[in-house]
C-alpha cells in the first residue's frame, strides 16, 4: 500500500492581500522546491472540494488522471501518492517499452479493481497507453490541463516565501513541467522567478532568429501560388480574431510547400508566423531521432511531445520541416516497414484529429516542407490531412529585383535593379541573399558605400574556365534552346552560361500558355530537347562531355515513364509511378533495350535539327560567350533575325526555312 504523505510536508500559505504588495513569509517557514509542489497544486486546482474529498477518502475508488504532457505524468503520480492512500498506482508516459502495449498488466489491474481496492492511473494519453478496462472503468476522470497562473503563483510562493505580484493570466503559458521547475528556484526572489518565466515564454512564441530578420508577408516576392495561399491564411486568421470566422477548423490551414533547396520555404513559413502573430513550433523527423535514443518508443515520445506542445500553444503554427523523411509506405522495404508503421500511423492519427476538430486540433495550422514533393506518402497529403502540395520554384525575372531589394535593405537605395532579373534568372532566393551579403562585404572592405558594381561582381563572378570550356558550354546551352524552339517543346525564357557550384550553364523554359497536359509527341519533343546539348557538342566537332549527365537522367526518366507510367507505349499497365519508372531498367532487360533504342533515335533527331540550324546555334553561342546570358526577348529577336535572313536571301549551307 502506498502511504499518504502528511500535509505538514507542504507549508500552507495564505493568499496575498489585494493591494499587490510582496508579503514575505516568516524566517522560520520552510521553502519547498517546485518539483515537490507543482503536481499537487495542479491536481488540487482540477477538483472541486467535494471531488477532492472523494479523491482522498472514497473506498474502492478508481481514478484516471489525464496529464497535459508526458513530463507531467511523474509529478502527478507523486502528488496523487502524497494526497491519499492507494492500493495501486499506475503511471505511463510512453517511455517504458511495455507502455507501447496498452493491455500490458491489464490482468493485475483488473484484479485490484475487482477486489474493491483503490487505484489511480496517470497518463497524458490514456486511450493509447492505458488498458481499456482501466479507462472505461474509472469512477473519476481528472483532466488537469496546463497549470493556470494561480497554480504557478502558489509554486513560486512555496519556493521563495513571497507571493508574486498579481499579473497576467497567461503567466507560464505554453511552458512544460521542466520549464517551470527550471524557472522557479528555491531561495530566489519572486520577481526573478517571474522574469525567468517571461523569458522562457517569449522564447517559445516564435523562433528567435525569424523574429528580427524575416520580412513580413506583404514584403516577400516571388512565391507565386504559395504566397497567395499564405496571404489568404493570414487574412483568415485575422478574420477569426475579429469574430468574422467562428470555427477555426473552417480555415484552409494544412499544406506542404515543395521546392528545390534555397527557394525560401522556411522563410515563407516564418513570415506567415510573423505576419499572423502566431507562435511557430518547428520540428522534423531528424530532430525526433537526435533528441532521443533513436529507438521506436523514444521517437514516438519525441513526436508526441512536440505535437502536444504545438497544440498547447494554439492558436499556433506547427512546421514539419523535411517531411519527406516520413517514408512512403508503398516504397518502404519490408525490413523497415515494421519500424515505421506505428510512427506514420501516429502522425496520420494526429492529422486526422486536426481536420476533425478533435482534441488534438486546438486551432492548429500545420505546414510541411520538402525538397521532394513527389516522394510523399499519398495518405499524408490527401484532403483532410495536409490536403495538398504547393510547389515553390526559383523566382522569375520580375520577382528577382524585389528579392534583391529586400536583402539589400538601405544599400543601393534608388538604384534600378530591374535589369538584373534577366541576368539572374534561375537563381534561388538563397543564392540571391548570398549576392547581397557578398556585395556588402566588398563595400565594407573598400570602406565606402555599396555600389552597383559590387553587386554585379557577385552576380557575374569571375569565370575561371578556359575559352574552350566556355565555348563548349555556350554551344551546349544554345543547342538546348534551338531544339526547344524548333520542336515547340517549351517556350525559351532565358539561356545562361553563368556558372555556379552545381552547373556551368542553363536553359530555362516554360510550357506554352494554356498547355496543361502532355501528349506522347510533347514528351518526345522534351526528350529530344534534353539530348540536344550533347548532340550540339558532337555536331560542332567536340566529344560528348560529362555536362550532359543531368540531361541524360531527364531523358531516360521521361522515356521510361512513357512506357511504364503514362500508358503511351505498347500497353496500358502502369508498372511504376513516373518518378520511379527508370527503376525498371535494372530489373527488366527487354525494357532496358526498348529505352536504349528510343534514346538513340531521339539523339539522332537532335543531331539532325542542330545540323540543319547550325547557323542559329552558332549565333546564339557567340552571343552567350560575349554577354554570358540571353533573356527571352533577346532570344526571340535573334531567332527572328535568323529567320528573316533565310527568307530574304539564299538558303544557308545547312538548312531550309524554319518550321518552328
From TrEMBL:
Q: Name one GO molecular function term.
A: ATP-dependent peptidase activity
Q: What Enzyme Commission number(s) apply to this enzyme? A: 3.4.24.-
Keywords linked to the UniProt accession? ATP-binding, Hydrolase, Metalloprotease, Nucleotide-binding, Protease
**Gene Ontology biological process terms from the UniProt entry:** protein catabolic process; proteolysis
Output the superkingdom of the source species: Bacteria
Looking at its record, which EC class is this enzyme?
A: hydrolase
Q: Where is this region: Disordered?
A: 1-28
Q: Where is the composition biased (Acidic residues)?
A: 15-25
Report domain AAA+ ATPase positions.
Answer: 251-396
- Which InterPro entries does this chain map to? AAA+_ATPase, ATPase_AAA_core, ATPase_AAA_CS, P-loop_NTPase, Peptidase_M41, Peptidase_M41-like
One GO location term (cellular component): plasma membrane
The family assignment reads: Belongs to the AAA ATPase family.
UniProt protein name:
ATP-dependent zinc metalloprotease FtsH
Biological source species = Methylobacterium bullatum
Amino acid at each position: 500500500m502506498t502511504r499518504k504523505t502528511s500535509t505538514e510536508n507542504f507549508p500552507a500559505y495564505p493568499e496575498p492581500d489585494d493591494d499587490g504588495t510582496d508579503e514575505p513569509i516568516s524566517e522560520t517557514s520552510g521553502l519547498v522546491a517546485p518539483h515537490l509542489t507543482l503536481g499537487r497544486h495542479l491536481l488540487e486546482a482540477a477538483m472541486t472540494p467535494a471531488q477532492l474529498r472523494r479523491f482522498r477518502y472514497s473506498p474502492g475508488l478508481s481514478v484516471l488522471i489525464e496529464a497535459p504532457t508526458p513530463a507531467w505524468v511523474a509529478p502527478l503520480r507523486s502528488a496523487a501518492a502524497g494526497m491519499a492512500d492507494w492500493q495501486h498506482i499506475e503511471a505511463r508516459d510512453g517511455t517504458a517499452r511495455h507502455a507501447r502495449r496498452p493491455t500490458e498488466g491489464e490482468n493485475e489491474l483488473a484484479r485490484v479493481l475487482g477486489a474493491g481496492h483503490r487505484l489511480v492511473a496517470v497518463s497524458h494519453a490514456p486511450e493509447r497507453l492505458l488498458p481499456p478496462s482501466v479507462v472505461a472503468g474509472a469512477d473519476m476522470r481528472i483532466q488537469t490541463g496546463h497549470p493556470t497562473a494561480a497554480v504557478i503563483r502558489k509554486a513560486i510562493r512555496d519556493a521563495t516565501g513571497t507571493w508574486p505580484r498579481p499579473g497576467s493570466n497567461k503567466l507560464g503559458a505554453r511552458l512544460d513541467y521542466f520549464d517551470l521547475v527550471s524557472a522557479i528556484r528555491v531561495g530566489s526572489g519572486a520577481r526573478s522567478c517571474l522574469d525567468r518565466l517571461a523569458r522562457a515564454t517569449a522564447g517559445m512564441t516564435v523562433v528567435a532568429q525569424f523574429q528580427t530578420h524575416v520580412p513580413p508577408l506583404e514584403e516577400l516576392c516571388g512565391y507565386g501560388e504559395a504566397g497567395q495561399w499564405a496571404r489568404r491564411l493570414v487574412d483568415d486568421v485575422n478574420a477569426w480574431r475579429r469574430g468574422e470566422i467562428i470555427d477555426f477548423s473552417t480555415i484552409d490551414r494544412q499544406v506542404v510547400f515543395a521546392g528545390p533547396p534555397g527557394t525560401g520555404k522556411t522563410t515563407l513559413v516564418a513570415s506567415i508566423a510573423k505576419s499572423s502573430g502566431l507562435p511557430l513550433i518547428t520540428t522534423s523527423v531528424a530532430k525526433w531521432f537526435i533528441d532521443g535514443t533513436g529507438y521506436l518508443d523514444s521517437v514516438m515520445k519525441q513526436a508526441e511531445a512536440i505535437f502536444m506542445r504545438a497544440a498547447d500553444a494554439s492558436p499556433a503554427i506547427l512546421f514539419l520541416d523535411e517531411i519527406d523523411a516520413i517514408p512512403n509506405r508503398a516504397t518502404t522495404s519490408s525490413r523497415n516497414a515494421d519500424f515505421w508503421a506505428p510512427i506514420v500511423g501516429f502522425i496520420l492519427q494526429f492529422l486526422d484529429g486536426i481536420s476533425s476538430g478533435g482534441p488534438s486540433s486546438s486551432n492548429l495550422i500545420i505546414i510541411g516542407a520538402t525538397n521532394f514533393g513527389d516522394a510523399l506518402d499519398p495518405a499524408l497529403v490527401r484532403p483532410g490531412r495536409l490536403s495538398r502540395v504547393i510547389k515553390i520554384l526559383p523566382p522569375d525575372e520580375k520577382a528577382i529585383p524585389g528579392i534583391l531589394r529586400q536583402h539589400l535593405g538601405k544599400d543601393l537605395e534608388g538604384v534600378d535593379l530591374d535589369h538584373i532579373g534577366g541576368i539572374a534568372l534561375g537563381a534561388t532566393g538563397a543564392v540571391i541573399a548570398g549576392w547581397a551579403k557578398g556585395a556588402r562585404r566588398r563595400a565594407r572592405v573598400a570602406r565606402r558605400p555599396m555600389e552597383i558594381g559590387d553587386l554585379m561582381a557577385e552576380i557575374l563572378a569571375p569565370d575561371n574556365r578556359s575559352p574552350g570550356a566556355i565555348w563548349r558550354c555556350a554551344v551546349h546551352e544554345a543547342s538546348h534552346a534551338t531544339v526547344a524552339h524548333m520542336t515547340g517543346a517549351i517556350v525559351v525564357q532565358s539561356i545562361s552560361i553563368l556558372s555556379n557550384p552545381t552547373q556551368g550553364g542553363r536553359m530555362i523554359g516554360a510550357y506554352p500558355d494554356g498547355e496543361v497536359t502532355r501528349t506522347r509527341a510533347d514528351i518526345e519533343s522534351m526528350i529530344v530537347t534534353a539530348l540536344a546539348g550533347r548532340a550540339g557538342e558532337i555536331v560542332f566537332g567536340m566529344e560528348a562531355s560529362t555536362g550532359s549527365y543531368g540531361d541524360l537522367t531527364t531523358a531516360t526518366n521521361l522515356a521510361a515513364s512513357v512506357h511504364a507510367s503514362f500508358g503511351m507505349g505498347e500497353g496500358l499497365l502502369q508498372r511504376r509511378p513516373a518518378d520511379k519508372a527508370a527503376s525498371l531498367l535494372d530489373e527488366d532487360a527487354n525494357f532496358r533495350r526498348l529505352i536504349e533504342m528510343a534514346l538513340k533515335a531521339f539523339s539522332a533527331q537532335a543531331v539532325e535539327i542542330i545540323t540543319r540550324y547550325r547557323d542559329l546555334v552558332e549565333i546564339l553561342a557567340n552571343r552567350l560567350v560575349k554577354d554570358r546570358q540571353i533573356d527571352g526577348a533577346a532570344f526571340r529577336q535573334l531567332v527572328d533575325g535568323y529567320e528573316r535572313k533565310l527568307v530574304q536571301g539564299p538558303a544557308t549551307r545547312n538548312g531550309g526555312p524554319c518550321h518552328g
